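Ticket #314: bound-state structure for manganese (II) ion.
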Amino acid sequence: MHVRAGHDEVDAIAASGADVVLNGITGSIGLTPSIAALRAGSQLALANKESVVAGGHLLFDAQTRPDQINPVDSEHSAIWQSLRSGTHAEVSRLVVTASGGPFRGRTRERMRDITPEQALNHPTWHMGPVVTINSSTLMNKGLEVIEASRLFDIPPERIAVTVHPQSIVHSMVEFRDGATICQASPPDMRLPIALGLSAPDRLDDVAAACDWSTAASWTFEPLDDEAFPAVDLARRCLNASEKHTAVLNAANEQAVHAFLDRRLPYLGIVDTVGRVLDAMDGELRGAPRFTSVDDMLACEHEARARADAIIAAR
Ligand SMILES: NC(=O)C1=CN([C@@H]2O[C@H](COP(=O)(O)OP(=O)(O)OC[C@H]3O[C@@H](n4cnc5c(N)ncnc54)[C@H](OP(=O)(O)O)[C@@H]3O)[C@@H](O)[C@H]2O)C=CC1
Ligand SMILES: CC(=O)[C@@H](O)[C@H](O)COP(=O)(O)O
Ligand SMILES: [Mn+2]
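RESOLUTION: The complex was predicted; output attached.
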């Protein structure tokens, strides 16, 4: 067996020219292997949403042919599958579903003393710590709106978010005639992962389908943007520039780790991200587009340093 480790080795493995490379790394550290896989001509099965959020055009410019990215994030896989029902010009809106996380229905006041243990208790999915905390703050949904807009070339104002606590409808596409097509299945990542690897073909018996022999309720409710401001913040970044979305993600990564280390209170996570964005806004608007991966890394480095300073000063 050959064991390889370290950042350069991850990039080298991604660049090996496999038919499909699945990127399931957490964080924007996943961008360079994504770029390496695309440049090598591999199909990229992408769970690492941070590649899209932090990399912006750097990711898409690395493609050697159209449609080289197979979305694996469950919502984006659902949209990708639903988009088979019509053309891009026929799409009216994308509707991204959110579980609402463990604190759905709470006011901000009732979220002041949340502990890492409480926030790591996702109601429907078993996932790694960073994405689980992001689901609880709804920052995951903010990142996913950015991801959807860029993957499917749909502007933010035509992407809705609806809270669906059962996580059965993984997202939907509304078409111009009023039809809505969704992809539904019990929450199980084996399905989008398998499709990401096998597309355009479907494999047999990957995961359980919905059970129609017992009564079930699927509910949908609006997102409470006051209690969960992360989606609005992400939309503002998406409208502003690709540098804003990279800063959003980098500051959030620092804040989530600080919360998990008990150096930051729960409400401080999104608050810190907002403060970093406010501090860097003028600078980002002055040069909104990345000139290179090094430029992206420098931008992220500053965002992380500013987030760390805000966290340390609290
Ligand atoms: N879990 C899920 O259901 C879903 C996850 N995603 C996305 O997929 C990604 C992974 O999530 P998840 O599997 O939950 O996270 P986990 O924390 O369970 O796993 C993260 C993986 O990333 C690896 N990793 C972290 N840092 C580095 C690094 N610097 N270099 C190489 N590898 C690294 C870890 O390796 P090691 O173990 O060696 O530390 C680990 O294998 C995230 O972007 C998440 O948002 C999207 C949809 C669903
Ligand atoms: C499984 C998956 O794709 C996660 O990103 C999931 O979306 C998290 O669920 P919520 O963010 O909706 O709570
Ligand atoms: Mn998701």
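RESOLUTION NOTES: The first strand starts at residue 20 and ends at 23.
TICKET STATUS: resolved
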